[in-house]
Write a structure and sequence with these properties.
Elements (H helix, E strand, L loop, with lengths): L2 H4 L11 E2 L8 E2 L6 H6 L4 H10 L10 H7 L18 H7 L7 H24 L7 H25 L1 E4 L12 E4 H15 L16 H13 L1 H5 L4 H12 L29 E5 L41 H9 L11 E2 L3 H4 L3 E4 L1 E2 L17 E2 L15 E3 L17 E5 H14 L3 H15 L10 H11 L6 H8 L24 H4 L13
Antiparallel strand pairs: 1-2, 3-4, 5-11, 6-7, 7-10, 8-9
C-alpha cells in the first residue's frame, strides 16, 4: 500500500477527539462523530479511523519533540550556543544540563503530543466498541489502535513517570482523565498489550506502515527491559520471550547496507532482504503534514553555508556529536577506518557530505573549500563548548541522508524507523548479560560488529560494552536517554557538564499548564 494513502486523513473525516494544545492540556473536545454502524457497514473506512492516531507519530521526530528530548538530554547529541544563535531562551542548555522547569516549552509540547495521540486512539477505539462479535478485520484495526494508545502511554511512563487514562467507552469529555502512577500504568499497558497481541497482523500480512504483531512484541520487550526502572522489579527474562519471538523465526536480517536503512524512500526496503524495520513512521516529501521545516535531518546540524547538493540552502548550524561520546563509543570502541557506521562516502559525490560523522574541512559539490560567515575555512573540530561555540566547532552527523535532487527542501522522504532488528538483537544481548551469560551477549554484539566492519571483541567483554555498542549502532535514533538511564550513566558528568545531576532529573517535569486545570489531581514530579 502506498505510504501516502496509508496515512491520509480526509479533511471531512476527522475522527479524533483531541486533547487541546492550549493551556488546558488535559481537557478534551469532541469532534465530528462517525458511528460504529457506519464503519462496520463499510470496512474500507477503517483505515481512516486509524489514520489520526497513526499520523500523530509524524511530529515526534524533531528537535523539540520526543526525539529531541530523547537525544539532546543524552551524551550523544548537543545543541551548543553560537553567539546568540541557538540560545532560544536557554532551552538547549537546560536539555544538556538536565535542568528543565515546568515552564519549558518543549516539555509541554511533548506532553501535548502524547496526550493528543492517546485521545485520537481512544476516540477511535470507542467508535469501534468492545463487541467481540465482529469481523477479524475490525478486531485487527481495534488492536492496532490499542497498540498506539499503549505506545503513547509507554512514552508517558518513560518520560513523566505517570500516564493519563480514560476509558475509551466513556463520552464524559467534561470530566478529568484518571492519572495512573508509573507502576499502575506499566501493568495496565503490559496487560492490554498481551490481550491484543494475537489480534495484530503479522508482518507478512500487513500493509506497509501498519503496526504489526512484531511491533507489539517490541513494545512489550521495551517495557520489560525497563521494568526495573519503572517498578523496581526486573523483567529481563520476560523481555527475552518477546525478543525471541521477533528474532527466532528468521524473518529479519541485518542490512548489508547500513545507511540504506535510512535512505530516501526507505519504504522500498519493505520485506526485502536486510529489511530491519519493525515499526516505522511513513513520511513523504510530496506532503507537508503541517510539518515543513520540522522533521529535517540536514538543517539542524550542517553549517549555514553548506547546501549539500545545492538545493539545501537553509541549514541552521545546530546540533553536534559531543567529544566525550565520540571518544568513548568510537575512538575507544571500534576502528573508524573500517566501521561503516562511522562514515560512508558513497553519497559524497552527490551531496558533498558523508553519511555518519562529518569533521575537518568541508567542501561544496564543485570540490571548493567552504568558508564560514567570517571568511575562514569551514573545518569542523572535535572539540566544542556548550556556550559561545565558534561556527566551525563540533562534528556534524548525518543518519537519514536526503535526496540529491530536491523535491521540497523543507521536507523529508525518509521514513523514520522507531524500532529495528539490530535494536532487538542488542536488547537480547543485554538481557543475556544481565542474566549472567556474558558469552552469549558477546556473540550477539560480535555478530553486529562483523556486519558493520568493526573488529571482533575477543576478551574483556562487560555489560557496559552493550551500552557503548548501542551508542554506535543506534546513534541519533531516539534511544540514548532511555539506555543511559537503564545503565546508570544518565545523571553523570559528561562533556561540558561537570557535576552529577540529582535523581529527580530522571523524569521530566509535568508542564505547569497541565497541572493547573486539574485542581490538585495531578501532582508535580519531585524536584520541580
Amino acid at each position: 500500500m502506498n505510504k501516502k494513502i496509508l496515512y491520509m486523513v480526509l479533511g471531512t473525516f476527522m475522527l479524533s477527539v483531541l486533547l487541546t494544545t492550549s493551556c488546558t492540556d488535559l481537557e478534551e473536545e469532541p469532534r465530528d462523530k462517525i458511528t460504529s454502524e457506519v464503519l462496520l457497514e463499510d470496512p474500507n473506512l477503517l483505515i481512516n479511523l486509524v489514520a489520526p492516531a497513526l499520523g500523530q507519530l509524524r511530529g515526534f521526530w524533531s528537535k523539540d519533540n520526543v526525539w529531541g528530548v530523547m537525544e539532546a538530554t543524552s551524551d550523544e547529541l548537543c545543541f551548543p550556543t553560537r553567539g546568540s544563535d541557538w540560545f532560544d531562551g536557554g532551552v538547549w542548555q537546560e536539555y544538556w544540563k538536565l535542568e528543565w522547569t515546568p515552564q519549558n516549552g518543549d516539555v509541554k509540547k511533548v506532553w501535548n503530543t502524547l496526550s493528543t495521540g492517546i485521545a485520537s486512539a481512544n476516540f477511535a477505539i470507542g467508535v469501534l466498541g468492545e463487541d467481540e462479535n465482529v469481523s477479524d478485520e475490525v478486531k485487527e484495526y481495534r488492536s492496532m489502535l490499542r497498540f498506539l494508545r499503549d505506545y503513547y502511554m509507554y512514552l508517558f511512563i518513560d518520560l513523566y513517570g505517570i500516564s493519563p487514562y480514560r476509558d475509551p467507552a466513556s463520552t464524559a469529555y467534561d470530566e478529568f482523565p484518571e492519572i495512573f502512577s508509573r507502576e499502575k500504568a506499566f501493568y495496565y499497558v503490559v496487560s492490554d498489550m498481551k490481550a491484543i497481541l494475537n489480534q495484530m497482523p503479522e508482518r507478512g500480512d500487513a500493509a506497509y506502515g501498519i503496526p504489526t504483531r512484531d511491533a507489539g512484541r517490541m513494545l512489550l520487550a521495551k517495557l520489560y527491559l525497563n521494568k526495573e526502572i519503572y517498578t523496581g522489579v526486573s523483567g529481563y527474562d520476560s523481555a527475552r520471550i518477546y525478543l525471541d519471538q521477533i528474532i527466532n523465526p528468521g524473518n529479519y536480517h541485518l542490512a548489508d547496507d547500513y545507511f540504506g536503512i535510512f535512505k530516501p524512500k526507505n519504504d522500498e526496503n519493505f520485506l526485502q532482504p536486510g529489511d530491519e524495520a519493525i515499526f516505522t513512521v511513513p513520511l513523504d516529501d510530496a506532503d507537508n503534514y503541517n510539518l515543513d521545516n520540522v522533521v529535517i535531518w540536514t538543517n539542524i546540524t550542517f553549517h549555514y553555508n553548506q547546501s549539500l547538493s545545492g538545493g539545501y540552502n537553509s541549514n541552521w548550524n545546530g546540533c553536534i556529536a559531543p567529544q566525550g561520546y565520540l571518544e568513548e563509543c568510537w575512538f575507544n570502541g571500534t576502528d573508524t577506518a573500517t566501521d561503516v557506521r562511522w562514515g560512508d562516502s558513497s553519497v559524497y559525490a552527490e551531496l558533498a557530505v558523508v553519511c555518519g560523522f562529518n569533521y575537518g574541512q568541508q567542501y561544496n559539490i564543485a570540490g571548493e573549500e567552504i568558508l564560514d560567515r567570517g571568511g575562514n575555512p569551514l573545518s569542523f573540530t572535535f572539540e566544542c563548548p556548550l556556550e559561545n561555540a565558534a561556527e566551525v566547532q563540533g562534528v556534524r552527523v548525518l543518519k537519514y541522508y536526503p535526496k540529491a535532487v530536491v523535491t521540497v527542501a523543507s521536507r523529508v522522504d525518509n521514513d523514520f524507523i522507531v524500532w529495528r532488528y539490530a535494536d532487538a538483537l542488542l536488547m537480547k544481548a543485554e538481557c543475556l548479560a544481565r542474566g549472567g551469560d556474558l558469552g552469549g551477549a558477546q556473540s550477539i554484539v560480535n555478530e553486529i560488529r562483523a556486519k558493520r566492519g568493526a573488529p571482533e571483541i575477543t576478551s574483556g567483554f562487560e555489560l557496559m560494552d552493550i551500552l557503548d555498542e548501542r551508542g554506535r549502532e543506534l546513534y541519533w535514533e531516539g534511544h540514548r536517554r532511555q539506555d543511559m538511564i537503564r545503565f546508570g550513566t544518565y545523571l553523570l558528568p559528561k562533556t561540558n557538564k561537570e557535576t552529577t545531576s540529582p535523581e529527580t532529573a530522571l523524569l521530566l517535569p509535568i508542564p505547569q499548564t497541565a497541572i493547573e486545570p486539574m485542581e490538585g489531581r495531578l501532582i508535580q514530579n519531585p524536584g520541580y
